[in-house]
Structures are given as C-alpha cells and as structure tokens.
Amino acid sequence: MTLTDAEAKVLRALREGAELAMHVRQTRRGPYYTLAGRRLSVVTFKALEGRKLIGRESGGQARTVYTLTQVGEEALTDWEATRSPDRLLLP
Question: Which of 19, 50, 2, 55 is closest to 10 using CA atoms?
Fold first, then answer.
C-alpha cells in the first residue's frame, strides 16, 4: 500500500504518541480534525480512515480519538523500508 508523505507523517506521529481527534461542532458545520492540537486536512484524514489505516479508539458526543491500526502500522513500516534513512521525514 502506497502512502503519501502527508499520510506517513500522520501515521508516524500517531506511532510516537500524538493524539488524532475529530471534534464535532455545535453548529451545522461539519467536524474538524486535529493532530497533536494542530488542524489536519479533512482530505488526509478521510484517506487514512477510508483505507482503514486509523480507527476509532474512544469517543463522546463532542470529540472522538483515533489510533493507528495494525494495517496502518504495516503500511508505515513498508513505507519506511522503501526510503533511505536520509529520505525519511523530518519532525
């Protein structure tokens, strides 16, 4: 499974303990997503969720936390194996 650099960066952050959360707004607008407290692109989030690289860990009415799945861990490991050490993403 091929990952984009943005997807790999999110998965690495999750592996290292960052929190990925979906926040539900009290208005009619849709939810928004944060990774380690910073906004995350809806497109990136939906791509990860659609490919089952992330999954729900816990949730409430206003906030849901996501975690790295086994499929996501394997995809990230494969992505890292295809990169030379100097081509891995910097934090």
Answer: 19
Assigned token pair, 50: 């659609």
Mapping DSSP onto H, E and C, the string for 7-25 reads HHHHHHHHHCCCCEEEECC
CB burial of residue 49 (10 Å; 0-12, 13-18, 19+): middle
Taking only the tens place, the pLDDT of each residue in 40-82 is 999 999 999 999 999 999 877 788 999 999 999 999 999 988 8
| Contact by Cβ (8 Å): 66, 58 | no
Confidence of residue 83 (pLDDT cuts 50, 70, 90): confident
- Integer Cα distance of 44 and 10 in angstroms: 9
